[in-house]
Amino acid sequence: MEKFWNKYRIPSARMPFRDYSRGGLYYITICTFNRKMIFGQIENHEIVLSPIGKIVYDEWNRSFQIRRELFCDVFVIMPDHIHAILRIHDENTVETHGRASLLQQSYTAKKHGIAYRSPKSISSFVACFKSAVTKKINQFRHTPNKPVWQPRFYDHIIRNDEEYQRIWDYIIDNPVKWKNDNHLQ
User: Fold this and answer.
1) Closest-CA residue to 36 (of 126, 173, 141)
2) Domain assignment of residue 144, given as a range
3) Does residue 183 lie in a domain region?
4) CA 102, 120, 104 angle in degrees (round to 5)?
5) Residue 13 domain-assigned?
6) To 5 degrees, how large is the angle CA 7–CA 111–CA 156?
7) Which is nearest to 77 in space by CA: 59, 56, 105?
8) How many structural domains comprise the chain?
9) pLDDT band for position 118 (50/70/90)?
10) 86 pLDDT band (50/70/90 cuts)?
């Protein structure tokens, strides 16, 4: 385990050689702090958002209005997490008609320090989204500095159409399968 400022730190789960601001498809999951079910509840296989869940929903949609390079293909807000497929359109990517896309400028990894996030990257988006939502939820609840999210998030780079469809189906079916999940045990 690495140390930062003489404290143990879990290394990043991101692939060190991947530029997460590069064009592509990304599956992400963001969970609430201690998996608390604060965003709503599942009724008749659909999410019914709580007032806090509505804050998350509104901020999620606002996020894509202010970011030209980032699009959300599909998402679902669950009682204690969010699943989404995000699409980054990179201005430096040249489409090659069915072949792998090429970067116009080569990507060179730079050492910017332990907490650096590339601008317009998935990590930068998630950090800004979580920060904005936390601020609004804590204002709503009158709970300054109370954590809303787990410190990290899960991501997966989607590599082909089959994977995309499988993940899409998983996201759409998530509310239906909620009772089969471990949440109610």
Assistant:
1) 141
2) 19-91+116-176
3) no
4) 20
5) no
6) 80
7) 56
8) 1
9) low
10) very high
